[in-house]
Amino acid sequence: MAAHGCNYSALLLIICSVSVFIVADSQDTTLSGGHHAAAVEDNPQAATEAAGKTSEQPAVEERSWEATEVEEATLHEAAGDKQDTPAPETEAPSPVPQPKDDFQEELVIRPLHSGDIYASFQFRTLWETDFMSGNKVSHYRLFPKSLGQVISKFSVRELHISFTQGYWRTMQWGQPFQPAPPGAELWVWFQDSVTDVDGTWKELTNVLSGIFCASLNFIDSTNTVQPSASFKPLGIGNVTDHRFLRYATLPREIVCTENLTPWKKLLPCGSKAGLTVLLKSEKLFHSSFHSQAVHIRPVCQDWQCKTTSWELRQTLNVVFDLHTSGQGKREWSLFKMFSRTLTEACPLASSSKIYIDITDDPQGELFELSPATPLLSQAMVLGDRRTFSVYDLMQPVTFGTVRSLNPLIRWKSSEGDMLRPLLHAERYVAGYGLQTGEIHTLMYNNHPYRSFPVLLLDTVPWYLRLYIHTLTVTSKGKDNKPSYIHYQPSKDRLRPHLLEMLVQLPPNSVTEVTVQFERALLKWTEYTPDPNHGFYVGSSVISSLVPSIVAMDTNITMDRPLFSSFFPCKEESSFFVRVYTEPLLVNLPTPDFSMPYNVICLTCTVVAVGYGSLYNLLTRSFQIEEPSPGLAKRLANIIRRMRGVPPL
Amino acid sequence: MGLLSDPNRRRALISLLTRLNAPICVVCYMAGVAWFMGLAFEPFTLRTYMSENAMGSTMVEERFPAGERALATGREFAAHKKKAGGMPVDWLVKTMQSHGLEVFTQRFSRTLPFPDENKERYMVKGTNVYGILRAPRASRTEALVLSAPCTPGDNNNQAVGLLLGLAQYFRSQVFWAKDIIFLVNEHDLIGMQAWLEGYHHTNTTGMDWSPLQGRGGSIQAALSLELSSDVITSLDLVLEGLNGQLPNLDLVNLFYAFCQKIGVLCTTQGKLQRNDWDSVSGYSHAVQTMMLMVMKQASGRSWGDHGLFLRYHIEAATIKGINSFRQYKTDITTIGRLMEGMYRKLNNLLERLHQSYFFYLMPSLSHFVSIGYYMPAFGLLAVILLLRALDLWVQLTAPPPRTEDGVVDPEQMSSPGVLSVLTPLVISHLTGVALYTLPIRFQEMAVEHFPVSETEAVVLTAIAVYTAGLALPHNTNRLLSGGGTEQGWKVLKLVAVLYLAVLLGCTALINFSLGFILAITLVPVAAFVTPHVPKFLSAFVMIVLSPACTLLFSVFFFQELQEMPISFLDGWMLYLSVISQGILDHCLYGSLVYPLIALLVYPCWLIFWNILFWK
C-alpha cells in the first residue's frame, strides 16, 4: 500500500507542477490567425510582437492553437513522469537577444456567479541569473534587491508567501486563480546544500517578517511542518526530499495596508505607473476578499533548459462586493473598483494587459463591455474554457481619444443558487464543553461520474491532543480507507500534529474525515492576551487533480471536428486544484484571568488555613497528656522497672 | 482551629453545639430565609454595569430605517405561512437569497415519547431555514445568531419580518467582522435543538436531523426575537435557560443600556422597574420579580428559544415584544434600531462574553444579586444539616451509658450492620429508578387498561409510583437482624443528612434556585424527623414538604406571582401538565430536573420517611 501511495504522490507532484504552468501559459494572448507550431508558442514574447504587427487583421480565436499547446504539455508530462524532469514548455524568454530581465503585468477581471467581481493582478519579473553559483550578484535592475539577497543568503530554491484577509467562498465564487488560506502562509524549499534547515528557516522567517511588515516571526517549531506530499516544488529541480521543505501558516495574521506597501515596493514601477496605480489601499481593503502573494521559483530559460532564470511572481487578488457598494446594480468599471483609471502601461514592462472574462455571455446579450475591444483570447483556466476580452496597454489605441482607459461592465443578473464546484471542502469543530471535541472535515466531490484522489494535509497545534485512533474516513456511509497516511504526532510545546492522507473521493459524494481531540490545559503564561477569544487551528489543505468541466461536456462535438473528439482528450481531462478549508477557532479551558491576584490569594489562604488544619484534625487523635514527670521521677521509674516493680 | 485541637475546649464547644442544637438550627433557618428575602432590597444589591470593555466605551450609531418594510415582509410571510400550512420554506429561501445571504435548510423529525398536549404535537417534522451573512474579509471563524421562531397561527410574523428586514439592512453595511446567521426555526425549541445539534454535530437526545451545509465558525452570542404586534409597549428580556443556566450578565447590561439609550420600556419577568424601593409596595415588587426569576430558574426548562444555546457556551437571550394597554407605543423601526445597536456592539467583541457574572438573580433589570450575595442564604440552610449531622455523630460516638451493675448493655453496644443502613438506601433508590423509568415505559399498557390518554397515563403513572413509594420501604428494616435499634436509625439518619447536604450543595452550585427551594422544604424535614415524634402529624408534615407537594405549591405560587391566580381544579390540571412538561423537557432537550428529583431527591426524602416509621 505504501508503494501505491508513493506512486500516487510522485504522480501528483509532477502533474501539480505542470498544471500550474498550463494555467499560467494558457493565459497568454493568442492573436495570430495562422496555425502555429508548438515551438513558436513557447515564445509568448514573439507572439505578442507578431500580434502587434498584425493587429489590423481581425482577431480570431484559434482553438486548435490552445489545444496543441496543452497537448504538448501533457506529452511532456507523460515523458517526464519517469525522469522527474521539468516540462520544457515553461515560460522562457525568446531566443532573440533581449534584456537580461523582463517584467510583465496583467490584470484579470471576472464577474462572479454571485454578482461580485473578482480582480486578479499578476506581475512577473524574470531574471537570467544564478544566485547559487557562488559569484556575488550585486547589480539589480528590475528584480528587487531585498528579495535577491534573501534568496542568495538563505539558499532558497523556492519561496511562496501569501497574506490573505478573508475566506475564498468557493460555493459562490468558484475556484480562485491563486488559492490561499486566511492569514499568512509561507512555504519554502531550500537548496540541498543547506545543512541547518531549521536554523535557516528561523532566520528567513524573521527577515521576511521585516520585509513584509508581518508577524512572520511568530513562526517557530510549534507551527512549522514538513509535508511529505502536499507541497511539491513548482519550479524546475528534481529534489523532492521533504527535509528541505518548510511549511507554516499563521491563521490569525491580519493583513492591511502595512503589508501592502512593502509588497508594492517590490514592483519595478512601484505604485507610480502601469497597473499598479490601481492598487490604492482604501479601495482594496473595502472588499470581501483580499489576498496578496509573492512566489519565487527557478524556471527554464529556453526549452532545452540548459540554464535557469529566476521568476518572481507577485499576485494580488481581490473580490469586490456588489451589495455594499453597487446598490444592487450589476455594473462595474475600473474607476468604481479602484477609484482610478489607467493612462499608461508601466514603461519598464514588456507586456501589460487587461483581461476581462466574458465567457458566460456567448451571444453578447447578458453582457455589455465598453469600450469594446477587438482582441479576444481563449484559455483553459481551471479546467474550463474561458474567453477573455483583452486590452493591451502597450498600444496607444487602447486609451482612445480621452487618453485614459476605464472599462465598464454591465451584466444581467444570474440570480439564484450557489455553485456546485467539483471539489470543495469545509471544516468545523463538533461537540460542546471544554474537555474534548471532534474535528470534522467534509470534502465534496460533485462530479457526476468520476472519482478522483485528493491529498489532505492537516496541521493541528499541539494543544489539541488528537486521538488518532478515532480517525475515521467515510464516504456515502461506508468506510473509505486512505491509500496513504503520513502522521507525525505532536510534541508538547515543540511541534504540531501533521496528518497527510491520500483519499479517493467517490463520484457525487461527501467524504467526512473525523478525528477526536482533547483540549490541553496550558500553563498560565502560555495563554494569549485574549484567551477567551479562542485559539486558531490553521486551514487544512486539499490538493487534487480534478476532472475538468470541459471533459464533462457532452456536446463536445459541437465546435470541433469529429475526428478530433472520439477519445476524451487527456490534456483537458483534469486540472490541479488546491482548496483550503476555513481555519478553526477553538476555545481551550481558560482560567479566570480577570482577578489573578484575588484568585491566588484566596486559593492560597483556603489551602493553607482550611485544608491544612482540617487535615490535621481528621488524622490526629487527641488525648490529654499528663505533664511530663521530673527527672528524678524518671530515674526512679527506670530503677523500678529494672527491679520489676510497677513504675510510679 | 487551635480551638478544636484543644480537647478540653473542643469538648466544651461540642457540648454547646449539641445542647443548643435545636435553637441554633431554628435561628439558622430563619436567618437563611431572611437573608434571601433581603436580597431583593435595593440598597443591598448592586447596580448593573458593563464589564466588557469592547462593548462599553465604543459608540455605535443605529440607523435602521426600514421598519415599515419589515412589517410588510412580515405580512407577506404570514400569507405564505397560511398558504403553506406551516413553514414557507421556499419563500423564505428565495427572500433570503434576494437579500444576498447564503441560504441553507435543515430538515428534522422527532417522535415525542408521548404526545405533548400543551402544544398538541406528537410526530414532529419540520424544516429550519437559515441564511448566513458573510462578513467581508472575515475567515468564518466567528458568528452571531439572530433567530425568530416560526410559530403556527398569527404569532410572531412581525419577528420574522423584522429579522428579514435586518438581514437586508445588515447586508448593505461593511463593518461586520463576524458572520451573522439569521435563523427561522420551526416548532420552536425542537427546531432550535435540531439546528444546534446539527451545527455542533452532537446528538444528545436522539433526534433525526439532516446535516448542515453552511457554518460560520464558533458562535459568540445569540438573540432570539419574539414579536407578535406591529407596535409594542415594552420589551421583555427572558434569561432563564435549560437547567437554570443564565447568559453572561453583560448581555443583560447591553440590552438595558440600549433600551435606556433608545428610550424603550424594558422589563424582566414582565415586571417594570420601580423607583420607590423604600416603600413596602416597591419592595414587594422587587421580591416578586426576583421570586419569578427563582421559580423559572428552578424549573430548569428553557423559557425561550435562547435557552438551548447556553449548553454550547453561547451567550443568548430572548427578547419578547409586549403590547399592553399602556399609552406609550414603540414602533418596529425603533426595535430594529435597538437590535442593530446590540449586534453592532456584539460585533465589536474581541473575546467571548466572559467578563461579567454568570450566576446572578435580578430583582429588577438595573440591579442584580451576585453569587457572593445569595450563596450565604443557602449556606445558612445547609449548615443546619451539618449541625444535625454533628449532633448525631456525637450521640453515636459517645460512650454508652453504663448500667448500674457496670456491664455494658450488649444490645446497645453492637453497632448496627451495614445491611440495616444499606437496605433502605437501596430500596428507596430503586423506587427512584422506577419513578424515572416506569412512566414512559408503561404508558402503552396504561392506555390499554385505563380510559386515559397517553399523556395522562404518563403523569398518573408517575404519581402512582411516587405514592407507592411511600408505602413500600418503611417496613423492611424489621426483617433484618440488627435493624430497628436506636443506633440503627441514627446511623441511617446521619447518612441521609449528609447525603442531603451534599446533594443540595451540588444542586445549588449549578442551579441556585432549585437548590434553595428544595432546601427550604427538605431541611426542616431532615432536621426534625425521628421515630419518636408523633407519627400522624409528622407524616402529614412530611408529605406536605415532599418534593411533589413542593411542586404543587410552586405552581400556585407562580400563578400568584404572575398575578393570574387560578382555582384549585385548574391548578391541579396545570400541575399535571407541568409534570408532563418536565418529563418531556428531559426527553427532548436533556433537562436534568426530572432525573435529579426522581433519582436523587425523592429517594433521599424516602429515607427520612423510612426513619419516621422506624420500629
Beta-strand level of the residues of chain B, as a percent range? 5-15%
Quickly give the CATH architecture of the largest domain in chain B.
3-Layer(aba) Sandwich
Largest sheet of chain A: 11 strands, mixed
CATH-derived topology of the largest domain in chain B: Aminopeptidase
Topology:
The complex is a heterodimer of chains A (648) and B (615).
Chain A: H1 2-26, H2 38-41, H3 44-53, H4 63-83, E1 101-111, E2 117-127, H5 145-153, E3 156-165, H6 170-173, E4 183-190, H7 197-212, E5 224-225, E6 245-250, H8 257-265, H9 281-284, E7 289-300, E8 308-320, H10 322-326, E9 331-333, H11 334-338, E10 351-357, E11 367-370, E12 376-381, E13 384-392, E14 408-411, E15 423-430, E16 436-445, E17 452-460, E18 464-475, E19 478-479, E20 484-488, E21 497-505, E22 509-519, E23 535-537, E24 541-547, H12 549-552, E25 574-580, E26 584-586, H13 596-619, H14 631-643
Parallel strand pairs in A: 1-10
Antiparallel strand pairs in A: 1-2, 2-8, 3-4, 3-7, 4-6, 5-6, 7-8, 9-14, 10-13, 11-14, 12-13, 15-16, 16-22, 17-21, 17-24, 18-19, 18-22, 20-21, 23-26, 24-25
Chain B: H1 2-5, H2 7-19, H3 21-38, E1 46-47, H4 53-56, H5 67-84, H6 89-98, E2 102-116, E3 121-133, E4 142-150, H7 157-171, E5 179-186, H8 188-200, E6 208-209, E7 218-226, E8 234-238, H9 249-262, E9 265-268, E10 271-272, H10 280-299, E11 315-322, H11 332-347, E12 360-364, E13 367-370, H12 371-397, H13 410-413, H14 418-441, H15 443-449, H16 454-471, H17 486-510, H18 512-528, H19 535-544, H20 547-561, H21 568-589, H22 593-612
Parallel strand pairs in B: 4-5, 4-7, 7-11, 8-9
Antiparallel strand pairs in B: 1-13, 2-3, 2-6, 3-5, 8-11, 9-10, 12-13
Helix pairs in contact in B: 3-12, 5-7, 5-11, 7-11, 9-11, 10-18, 12-17, 12-18, 14-16, 14-17, 14-22, 15-16, 16-21, 17-18, 17-22, 20-21
GO cellular component, one term (chain A): GPI-anchor transamidase complex
Biased composition (Basic and acidic residues) (chain A): 73-84
Signal peptide (chain A): 1-26
